[in-house]
Amino acid sequence: MKPVSPAAAWAAWGTCAVIWGSTFLAIAYGNDSVPPVWGATLRLGLATGILGVILAVRRQPLPRGRALVAALLFGLFQFGINLPLLYLGETQVPSGLSAVIFATIPLSTAFLTWVFRLEPLRPARIAGALIAVLGVGLIFSAQLSARVKPWPLLFVLLSSWSGCLAVVLLKRGPHQSPVAANAVGAAVGAAVCLVWSRALGEPQVLPHGWTGVLPVVYLAVVGSVVAFVLMAWLVNHWDVSRISYISVIVPLVALTLGAVLRHERVSTQSLVGAGIVLTGVVIGLQLWRPQAHS
Questions:
Q1: Which of 53, 83, 144, 210 is deepest in the core (most CB within 10 A)?
Q2: What is the pLDDT of residues 5-22, one digit of tens each?
Q3: How many domains does the chain have?
Q4: Integer Cα distance of 147 and 151 in angstroms
């Protein structure tokens, strides 16, 4: 494989951070008009079609063998489990707060890469994870004191873990086309989301008006096709832990957009919890120290 330009890799990393910082808000807007898991189904169905056209134009084959298994598992956990849980969670959890929960992804990724023997587990990451857990616990406590059911927050947390596992499983597989991997993954995810939607008894109708259509299109084209293809490309060139730093930037974007565009208000206790979470991430990843990048 040809060496990748550091500038190109960091540009992809930064683009993913900005896009995913905005997708939490787009999901919240979409949930206003479309049943949550049905919205995820439409998003993935549209993304599958777009990716299929790109593959046809470029005459790229679908993955086979171990690459196909990795793509299928990636699709199941990233799109078939992660997205429905996140969409359901955001029916009650503010988009910015959901992004803060996702900021724990680097620490979850550190443990998973250790379990799968991809990267060593360092003491700082254990300490950071324990601090982040305290922050998440404080956020849960704040939601309970506000008489909000704990299930939506739990859904968001489980969603973040599923997304971590998806990236690690894709990394364990052989290098493959990011477009092909996401085409298979989006197709699997759309099928699984459709099952979720039917099981939940959601009305499955096409959205009407810009308020219903625009979030689905934005999430499919920008959130899925662009961002996830860039992320899969990064998986081929970077270690998973470095890629996971994206989720440290995402809450800053999401909290700002949620406050400005949806006037989302987060309690003081939740903000304190968010600060503790981000502190744990900084400690766990030792972000104040210069990183030796390859």
A1: 83
A2: 888 988 998 899 899 989
A3: 1
A4: 12
